[in-house]
Design a protein that fits this description.
CATH topology: Rossmann fold
Oligomer: single chain
Strand content: 5-15%
Number of helices: 7
Strand order of the largest sheet: 3-2-1-4-5-6-7
CATH superfamily: NAD(P)-binding Rossmann-like Domain
Helix content: 40-55%
CATH architecture: 3-Layer(aba) Sandwich
Number of strands: 7
Radius of gyration: 17 Å
Distance between the termini: 41 Å
Order of helices and strands: EHEHEHEHEHEHHE
Largest sheet: 7 strands, parallel
Number of domains: 1
């Protein structure tokens, strides 16, 4: 498959979980990739797993909560490829505590990574994409940004924020051929969940590849079409009316 041949994508949080699955899907479709996260070892593992595909894969360890590192990520990407077609904002973290147990440090940790990091990457991507006349920005949201779950206030707040940021980005980008969209996953079987031992692990799950297929669909649409928002969840998972 070569739907994305000649396209360049940056994927944050690419070392594990959904980010790794998206990296695999995009490489399989022919895209050249820049993989970013704070953990260089995990990025290298992802890169090694993508050797079977005919794609150029670069790893750039980046803490997206730090403005200077984000700016460097995009500068290096442009130095390597000269253009950027796809931005996947996937990095995220959660803290499982009730509001009255949360420290300010824990709140800021989630907000800085999930929301501020997505803003910083979207800002730099928009600069490039507006100048070149188009591109796609895909934000990985969550159904928790629509139907909250107990003991996840920072995560819920940031995912609601991601939905709003996507709207603002789509509005600002549409006159320049830049499409912004948001994919809201339900339960996905990822490393931190599979081994956490929480009761959520017993709920219906999707694989990371299921979400990656949705993202691939969004970015392979004709350039004049945008899958603006998509909710994807296991058929048996509680969503409406969940507590």
């Amino acid at each position: 498959m070569s739907e994305l041949k000649g396209k360049v994508a940056i994927i944050t949080g690419a070392g594990t979980g959904i980010g790794k699955g998206i990296s695999r899907a995009l490489a399989g479709a022919g895209a050249d990739l820049v993989l970013a996260s704070r953990n260089k070892e995990n990025l290298q593992k992802t890169k090694d797993e993508l050797k079977e595909y005919n794609s150029e894969v670069n790893i750039i360890p980046t803490d997206i909560t730090k403005e200077e590192e984000v700016i460097s990520l995009f500068r290096q990407t442009m130095d390597i490829f000269g253009h950027l077609d796809i931005m996947i904002n996937n990095s995220g973290v959660s803290v499982g505590k009730s509001i009255d147990e949360l420290s300010l440090q824990e709140w800021n940790q989630v907000v800085d990574l999930n929301l501020t990091g997505t803003f910083l990457c979207s800002r730099e991507a928009m600069k490039i994409m507006k100048a070149q006349g188009g591109g796609r920005i895909v934000n990985i949201g969550s159904i928790s940004g629509q139907m909250p779950r107990l003991n996840s206030a920072p995560y819920v707040a940031t995912k609601f924020g991601i939905a709003g940021l996507t709207k603002a980005t789509a509005l600002e980008g549409r006159d320049f051929g830049v499409a912004a969209s948001c994919v809201h996953p339900g339960n996905v079987a990822i490393e931190r969940r599979v081994f956490s031992g929480s009761t959520q692990d017993q709920e219906p799950m999707m694989s990371v590849d299921d979400i990656a297929k949705v993202v691939l669909t969004a970015i392979t649409l004709p350039p004049n079409v945008n899958m603006y928002e998509c909710i994807t969840l296991p058929v048996g998972q509680l969503y409406l009316g969940r507590g």
